[in-house]
Design a protein that fits this description.
GP_PDE_dom; PLC-like_Pdiesterase_TIM-brl; phosphoric diester hydrolase activity; Glycerophosphodiester phosphodiesterase; binds magnesium ion; alpha/beta; binds SN-glycerol-3-phosphate
Length: about 250
């Protein structure tokens, strides 16, 4: 039996895909302006244990800093410019903490998929700390965030500190033993590279009682294929193209 599913089909990747600096509040606001009610974000830890939003392990691509983000304390990360790399109109945009985004989502009734994206070597700790923070931030809310990770160790950590917050295993390939790992972690969903889904895989995952989601879907043909396969969720960059009002 699949558990009830409170999340919408359409999820805006990193806030608003490539239309605003990824994983900044400006991006989530833009995704919301396009009608999106659920967002995916990437969360990792500063050296002093503050969960913040950034995709890459290093600061180089999406900030004016250099080196590994997880090596710096939050007091230094908070000074960085995470918008200028994208466009002049976003110059000075700060890196958000997970708490900043939680407040924005909760205040506006938006839902969140927190992809736990540990700095390599910090999988279990990142999962545990993100779990602790999310449990506190969403306490008393009707719908919790959805955790996901490519790293089973991160999901294990989140399960230890926030067992009530649902978990999903991210898969870029169907590695040996993925289904057993997802079951052992009590996952409610599998989030696949969209090209991996076919009739057999959808049936297998549904047979395990799990939901079926995809990343990162930016073409209409791909979205149509996933909807025809009966999958449950689509993470997209193209918030300006796909209407989240579409069933
Ligand atoms: O969570 C779905 C998707 O974001 C996973 O890949 O590299 O974009 O974080 P990536
Ligand atoms: Mg991600």
């Amino acid at each position: 039996m699949t558990t009830p599913w409170p999340y919408p089909r359409w999820i805006a990747h990193r806030g608003a895909g490539k239309l605003a600096p990824e994983n900044t509040l400006a991006a989530f606001r833009l995704g919301a302006q396009h009608g999106y009610r659920m967002f995916e974000c990437d969360a990792k830890l500063s050296s002093d244990g503050v969960p913040f939003l950034m995709h890459d392990a290093t600061l180089n691509r999406t900030t004016n800093g250099r080196g590994t983000g997880g090596d710096l304390p939050w007091s230094q990360l908070a000074q960085l410019d995470a918008g200028s790399w994208h466009s002049r109109s976003h110059a000075g945009e700060p890196l958000p903490t997970l708490e900043n985004l939680a407040r924005y989502c909760i205040a506006n009734g938006f839902l969140l998929n927190i992809e736990i994206k540990p700095t390599p070597g910090t999988e279990a700790t990142t999962g545990k700390v993100v779990g602790e923070h999310a449990a506190r931030l969403w306490q008393g809310q009707a719908v919790p965030p959805l955790f996901s990770s490519f790293q089973p160790g991160a999901l294990e950590g989140a399960k230890a500190t926030a067992p009530h917050i649902p978990r999903a295993l991210l898969l870029d390939t169907l590695w040996e033993g993925w289904a057993d790992v997802a079951q052992r972690l009590g996952c409610v969903a599998i989030v696949c590279n969209h090209a991996l889904w076919d009739t057999a895989l959808v049936a297998q995952v549904k047979g395990l009682g799990m939901r079926t989601l995809s990343y990162t879907v930016n073409d209409d043909w791909a979205a149509q294929r996933l909807i025809a396969l009966g999958t449950d969720g689509i993470i997209t960059d193209r918030v300006d193209f796909f209407s989240p009002a579409t069933a």
